[in-house]
TrEMBL record:
Keyword line: Glycoprotein, Repeat, Signal
Gene3D superfamilies: 2.30.30.100
Record PANTHER family: SENSOR KINASE-RELATED
Protein name: Uncharacterized protein
Superkingdom field: Eukaryota
Disordered as annotated region, ranges: 51-102
Organism: Adineta steineri
InterPro entries: FG-GAP, Int_alpha_beta-p, Integrin_alpha_N
UniProt-listed Pfam families: FG-GAP (PF01839), FG-GAP_3 (PF13517)
Length: 450
């Protein structure tokens, strides 16, 4: 769970990030109205469904190749009325796949009408998008929870991707981040292994190929990982949310891509997502954690040496599962954005300027939002909210009005049970695209901006 753009700590929050977490980010289908604004892909009072050409899926191994053709696929777009409230390795296998592409025009299907899906491993639960082979084309990295692998899909240059190459990691990889940790200008993979209570570091050999993981012990049930320099030595450090121990772990980088033993800090019950960003303008990155148990976010201010003060908590919605940090009201103060799985909302906590935050303002989204990314998607220089709505099989996009408030979400259908989202330009057209890990269909969706 992703992401310099701010992404969910994955996430979902990486400073890319992209979900971070390192790791960057759906509707109730009740209302189908849209605003007339062709440049943003909106039309009035319309529910839109478009059917693409037949789906072709291709899979191959060293011994067999098969091609299957299935029935046509449907891509849907809708908007939901929003209620707003304020509250106090060595490569182990390669799989080739290519499937649904929707090419209906911008006017009919909004900002993201072109969707392609790619097969990955079993239960992909985290996605990051970073150029790992130095060709200036962002590649997809996915944590396959059910396969105990990370998959790397290289970008061919036009927003399409090669088959994934798999690398074995620990049991139950839950979150992935991609950052250069050994100062060789080659982004490395860092993964939180849920079942083995460690993080794995896979160093990049330089051409998008990765070494076997080196593991470091963390807390019980590590759910989210992000990578950022927290002690100002220009070496990215690892921060992990340990859901089973109600802690965050900080592993300082020695400088060559190896890490010291963890230091832990107490946070709230069941922390599911972590982000790292300087929220009080002292040039020291702070830790922000989504605590699912007490329905809060924790803010741990950095003392300056990579150690942190005790948490200060702020109320969110029900079951916060993903957190992202971005300045959404253009006051140069990073704000907190949270996806609340239990209340089907996202909430925005504006920064007062000293690292404390106002009460949350909430916006309705789809069912069971699990991941959030905050990136400008319509080129107006205001960061927008993109959320993976697990229960709606869709992503929602909430455009920023310019003052840190947001319009109703626009929903785009994706694969089954979308777990993680990232937002970045993957086809070099200077328009941000959406990448989603679909845990129920073992795929990633790439939605290209029109």
């Amino acid at each position: 769970m992703p992401a310099a753009n701010y992404f969910p700590g994955n996430q979902s929050c990486q400073l890319f990030s992209f979900n971070n977490n390192s790791s960057l980010i759906s509707s109730n289908f009740n209302t189908y109205w849209m605003y007339t604004n062709q440049s943003s892909g909106f039309i009035t009072n319309t529910s839109i469904t478009s059917t693409s050409s037949p789906t072709t899926s291709i899979s191959s191994s060293s011994t067999t190749t098969s091609t299957t053709t299935s029935s046509s696929s449907t891509t849907s777009l809708s908007t939901t009325s929003t209620s707003t409230t304020t509250s106090s390795s060595t490569a182990t296998s390669t799989t080739t796949s290519s499937s649904t592409t929707t090419t209906t025009g911008c006017t009919n299907l909004g900002m993201f009408p072109y969707q392609s899906t790619y097969s990955v491993g079993v239960l992909p639960e985290s996605v990051a998008v970073v150029d790992v082979n130095s060709d200036n084309k962002p590649d997809i990295i996915v944590a396959n929870y059910g396969s105990n692998t990370v998959g790397v899909l290289l970008n061919v240059g036009n927003g399409t991707f090669l088959s994934q190459t798999n690398y074995s990691v620990g049991t139950g990889p839950e979150s992935v981040a991609v950052v250069d940790v050994n100062s060789d200008n080659k982004p490395d993979i860092i993964v939180a292994n849920f079942g083995t209570n460690n993080v794995g570091v896979l160093l990049n050999t330089g051409n998008g190929i990765f070494r076997n993981q080196t593991t470091y012990a963390v807390g019980n049930i590590p759910w989210s990982v992000t990578v950022a320099d927290v002690n100002n030595d220009s070496k990215p450090d690892i921060t992990v949310a340990n859901s089973g121990l109600n802690t965050v772990s900080v592993l300082l980088n020695t400088g060559n891509g190896t890490f010291l033993t963890q230091t832990t800090y107490t946070v709230g019950l069941n922390p599911y997502s972590v982000a790292v960003a300087d929220v009080n303008s002292d040039n020291k990155p702070d830790i922000i954690v989504a605590n699912s148990g007490p329905n809060t976010v924790s803010v741990l201010l950095n003392t300056g040496s990579g150690t942190f003060l005790g948490q200060v908590t702020y109320a969110t919605g029900i079951l916060p599962k993903s957190v992202a940090i971005a300045d959404v009201n253009n006051d140069t103060k990073p704000d907190i954005i949270v996806a609340n799985t239990g209340s089907n909302t996202v909430c925005v906590l504006l920064n007062r300027g000293n690292g404390t935050f106002l009460n949350a303002t909430t916006y309705s989204v789809g069912l069971t939002p699990l991941s959030v990314a905050v990136v400008d998607v319509n080129s107006d220089n205001y960061p927008d909210i993109t959320v993976a709505n697990y229960g709606s099989n869709a992503v929602g996009v909430l455009l920023n009005t310019g003052n840190g408030t947001f319009l109703n979400q626009t929903s785009y259908s994706v694969g089954l049970l979308p777990w993680s989202v990232a937002v970045i330009d993957v086809n070099n057209d200077n328009k941000t695209d959406i990448i989603v890990a679909n845990s129920g269909s073992n795929s990633v969706s790439v939605l290209l901006h029109c």
